Amino acid sequence: MAKEEMLEMEGVVLEVLPSTQFRVELTNGAKVLAYAGGKVRKNRIRILAGDRVTMEISPYDLTRGRISFRHKDERPVAPQARRPQYKKR
User: Fold this and answer.
1) 10-residue averages of pLDDT along the chain (89 residues)
2) I need a surface site. Which of 10, 16, 54, 63 has the fewest CB within 10 A?
3) What is the pTM of this model?
């Protein structure tokens, strides 16, 4: 028998929990407990509350999922303060 396909859904992170777990609200209004996937953890991608994410959900347990992608913000980021330049002697 073939393995079931994962459901791929988008949502917004509501809350950051310990040990790389997150409370995510899906676009359909459901709230899911999710963890950061392996590639996200390996590349040290920060996930904060308010981030839009894509996650994979098993059809067997629709209350838990794995975050596979964090979408970049469309809003412009404020420029960072530059360090003062010192003259070399």
Assistant:
1) 84 93 95 95 93 94 95 66 71
2) 63
3) 0.76
Residue 43: what residue type?
N
Single out the residue of 41, 42, 8 nearest to residue 26, CA to CA: 8
Alpha carbons 9 and 12: distance in angstroms, whole number: 10
* C-alpha radius of gyration, the chain, whole number: 18
Structure-derived torsion over alpha carbons of residues 43, 49, 54, 60, reported in degrees to the nearest 10: 110
Quickly count: other Cβ atoms within 10 Å of residue 24's Cβ.
Answer: 25
Q: Quick check: helix, strand or coil at residue 79?
A: coil
Q: Contact 7/57 with Cβ under 8 angstroms?
A: yes
Q: Among candidates 18, 50, 45, which has minimal Cα distance to 33?
A: 18
